[in-house]
Amino acid sequence: xxxxxxxxxxxxxxxxxxxxxxxxxxxxxxxxxxxxxxxxxxxxxxxxxxxxxxxxxxxxxxxxxxxxxxxxxxxxxxxxxxxxxxxxxxxxxxxxxxxxxxxxxxxxxxxxxxxxxxxxxxxxxxxxxxxxxxxxxxxxxxxxxxxxxxxxxxxxxxxxxxxxxxxxxxxxxxxxxxxxxxxxxxxxxxxxxxxxxxxxxxxxxxxxxxxxxxxxxxxxxxxxxxxxxxxxxxxxxxxxxxxxxxxxxxxxxxxxxxxxxxxxxxxxxxxxxxxxxxxxxxxxxxxxxxxxxxxxxxxxxxxxxxxxxxxxxxxxxxxxxxxxxxxxxxxxxxxxxxxxxxxxxxxxxxxxxxxxxxx
Length: 359
Fold this sequence. Notes:
Blueprint: H1 5-18, H2 22-26, H3 28-67, H4 72-99, E1 111-117, H5 122-141, E2 145-153, E3 159-167, H6 171-175, E4 180-186, E5 197-207, E6 221-226, E7 242-247, E8 252-256, H7 262-292, E9 305-310, E10 315-318, E11 323-325, H8 328-332, H9 337-358
Parallel strand pairs: 4-9
Antiparallel strand pairs: 1-3, 1-5, 2-3, 4-5, 6-7, 7-8, 9-10, 10-11
Helix pairs in contact: 1-3, 3-4
């Protein structure tokens, strides 16, 4: 797996030189592409340099011991150095194997998140609101921007469905593991017998698609306008500013009524449609691989129950990796890193094992 490391290091040095070239700096696209490549290569090259340093230490210590004639204290010191260097090499090798795994090309993208209430009626809608708040607070903690694209709010403050964009470095790389069915177990405020009810909400995390990647023929679109309405059907404006776009070839329907401007609603609806079509295309490309090996995490299969939020017991369980955490309030307030880090680790381990199995 390390055959290309020297090549990566050489390319890294070439990019460093180019980034100081005035001609490159003046070309925004070329400069941006090089900066992106530089960012991706940096952790690999830095870890490779650590590996080379540890390997040099190991070889020197082994050479000294092979020569013999060392006094007792110095020999013990060299033996310890040899053992430390060997441990470092093993640890760094494992880290390099993970860094050399193929990257998800969507990891650096912004995301569009769609949350829909599932089984459970108003309770499911309220839980959708809890999830929206959780992701919004997580985004804020990482310095990401949240923009609501469309929301269908209920009278009690929940959401039948809500779509929003999260803009920030690496948003998809961390949030992609949230796609799936989220289940909540709690006692509704309207429940007089104190019984625990189970409700669900579906979360879809879509990588934002670039305009050039998904070409949409205007003739394939049916665009309807209607009056935006709030909870209970109360009109929030008197003009037909809400937009419904139907993609005729696929039957996909997108609605947006969040803005008072028809133009802005159409722009947001097109972003959602483009991302959904992009996701559909990605799913087709991954179908063959998915049939061969269903990944433990990160499948994005919306029919799966991926996580349970149990209010009475104050626990959250992710069923894909069997992890249960009791930092209930912290997680609902946006502290998702522990859960997401565990999912990323499991995903990498599965991919690494898959690579080993194919060798």
